[in-house]
Amino acid sequence: MRQLFILVILALLPHRSAADAFPVEIDHLYGSARIEAQPTRVVSLSFIGHDFLLSLGVVPYALRKWYGPFEFGVWPWGQEALGEETPVVMQGEIDIEAIAAMKPDLIVGQWSGMTRREYDLLSQIAPTVASAPGTGDYGMTWQDMLLRLGQATGRSDKAEAVVDRINQRIARVRVDHPEWQGATGIMVWAGTTGAYTEYDIRGKFLSELGFVTPQAIRSQSNLNHAYVKVPDEDLSPIDANVLIWLDSGASVARLNRLPLRRFMRAYSEGREIYSDLMLSSALSHSSPLSLDYALDTLVPLLEQAMDGDPATEVTSSRAAGILAGGPADDS
């Protein structure tokens, strides 16, 4: 009976997956990183990687701030996971000497633009994980980035659980919106009229919801060319079933001045979505922490834009003062 009791208790205890046994080796763009033991001092060079680490319960010793007004470069969706911790904040180019002085036991650089020379130097400081082979600098899916970080930090079970939860939520959205499946959709940076393709993390998110990149944009993109500049003189490549303008908060006037925008079907049929600073950042991070905010905010806007009725206002566009709806005229 005592032996049976012990077996039951052991079965109920949390277990570590095989991937959490150290040492682990992770292949990447520049070779392979061998991590001998669970790291405790992680330096994140990825522009969005700190979100991924925080979702696993790992507060990086140092992180690379991308942009935004928030302390430590952590946006609101990550602040609860950050808690009272105060990571070192790095900005701009990768500073090898500063990183060496931090004495990290793991350096993670997925979605960092790390060069081969930088990797060669960083890997002499600590095991360094660059982007996965065949994905380019910024072409990894959020799922792969998280699973690899789970392996590197000894939290594979946690990473798999997070991926499963968000994947299931996205799957439910797809089932609830059959009209989105196969429709064209595009995210466009409003400041310069540049489209993000399915090779970019933002385009990948739209693809997960069932949308496809317009052929005119897809034909110009590849793994190393995931952002396609669209001339103001010809906006037809981005005239999709749904057009999402990503904005830093300073491009509304520019959008309203685009002379050919009012000739697009997306404009006249009310299928433009204005994405403000917070939503644009959530989509640009596309992290396990920001995706819930992105889904909560974007799905209702997509429903408004894709309901087939040009009279339905997209609330974010109207609130921002993006003039939309009504056929183009020559006045």
Provide keyphrases for this structure.
elongated, Rossmann fold, 37% helix, 331 residues, five-stranded parallel sheet, disordered N terminus, 12 strands, single chain, alpha/beta, disordered C terminus, Bact_iron-sidero_bind
What's the gist of this structure?
This protein is of the alpha/beta class and 331 residues long. It has helices at residues 2-12, 49-55, 76-82, 96-102, 116-122, 142-153, 156-176, 201-208, 215-218, 252-257, 265-268, 277-285, 291-305, 315-320, and strands at 24-28, 31-35, 42-44, 62-64, 88-90, 106-108, 128-129, 185-189, 194-196, 227-229, 242-246, 272-275. The termini are far apart.
Question: Can you tell me about this structure?
Answer:
This protein is α/β, with parallel strands linked by helices. It folds into two domains: 14-161, 3-Layer(aba) Sandwich (Rossmann fold); 177-320, Rossmann fold. Helix content is 37%, strand content 13%. It contains 14 helices and twelve strands. A five-stranded parallel β-sheet has the order 5-4-3-6-7, with no helix packed on it. It has a five-stranded mixed β-sheet with strand order 10-9-8-11-12. Helix 3 links the parallel strand 4 (62-64) and strand 5 (88-90). Helix 6 (142-153) packs antiparallel against helix 7 (156-176). The chain is elongated and about 60 Å long. Mean pLDDT is 91; it is low at 1-19 and 325-331.
